Amino acid sequence: MGWVESLQRAIDFMEANLLEEISIEEVAKVANSSQFHFQRTFSILTDISVGDYLRQRRLSLAAQELVNTDVKIIDIALKYGYDTPEAFSKAFRKQHDVTPSEARKYKGKLKSYNRLVIQVNLKGAEPMRYKIVEKDAFQVIGVKREFSLVNEENLRGIPKMWDQVHADGTNDLLISLNDGELKGVLGVCVDKREGQLEEIEYWIGTNSLSDVPNHFETIVIPPSKWGVFEVHGPMPHSMPNTWKQIFSEWFPSHQYEHAGTPELEVYPADNPNDPNYYSEIWIPLK
After folding, report:
1. DSSP 3-state assignment of 131?
2. Which SUPFAM superfamilies does the protein's record reference (predicted)?
């Protein structure tokens, strides 16, 4: 369970440096992970982004200091990373529903977000259906975008990308071009960890053997050993629920690690709102 210990070390590092400017890159290094895979694992297991965790923890500590000391509000604002009292007051009110001044006068209730401790569920209460397959390289055609990991832009941008391909007909066109072994539309995530590059490449495409239409691009997925996990139930909730089960139960119980090459979500051309909708998660393993 080395990866669980690495994740906890990263949390301990964040807690020890809450008063400093720290980047996701620094935190990921402590976990011996790429930014993308650390960010992904953290948000799946905790239901919160790294940036939101840091913000909520800092504002929780700021609230304690407001109530228990006579330190000036401006000094507390600067201590917890806010350049102006106005910026601090806006963020503080958003979290606690009261202003810093009201908190100091004991008006209203405060929200405390406590330090995280990672606990992994090894009970396997809900069975997981998966298979291990080896697959040669294959072609995906579609559209791609690059998303920065800075300020977790990718977490906001990828859902908007899906909305657009559904709205402009790209999703339907991809389904019509699907003549490969993998059936449906694919979400492909490529970790572009090159030097100081802080971004990922995300594709929405399909497995196709055909010539590439002019407005599409192509990517070749390398030969891999894959963990193929069944996802049952309607979108959007079933997919993140299965991701959480994979990281909180399956990986800690098996000898495999994520291989670091592109991972896939496979969406068949059925009604995604159907309670019996079937989709898959493909994770490259080593």
Report:
1. strand
2. Homeodomain-like, Probable bacterial effector-binding domain
Torsions phi, psi for 141 (to 5 deg): -110, 145
Contacts made by residues 170-175, CB under 8 angstroms, sequence distance 24+: 170/142, 170/143, 170/204, 171/204, 174/141, 174/142, 174/204, 174/205, 174/206, 175/206, 175/269
- pTM value? 0.74
- Nearest Cα neighbor of 149 from 34, 12, 11 is 34
Q: Are strands 130-135 and 224-232 parallel, antiparallel or unpaired?
A: antiparallel
User: Could you count the other beta carbons within 10 Å of the beta carbon of residue 36?
Assistant: 22
User: Tens digit of pLDDT for each residue in 176-206?
Assistant: 999 989 999 999 999 876 544 567 899 999 9
Residues of each domain in the chain carrying CATH 1.10.10.60 = 2-104
Pull the structure tokens for residue 20.
């400093």
- Per-residue pLDDT tens over the stretch 245-268: 888 788 877 788 888 899 999 999
CATH superfamily of 130-285: Regulatory factor, effector binding domain (3.20.80.10)
CATH 3.20.80.10 residue ranges for the chain: 130-285
Is domain 2-104 classified as CATH 1.10.10.60?
yes
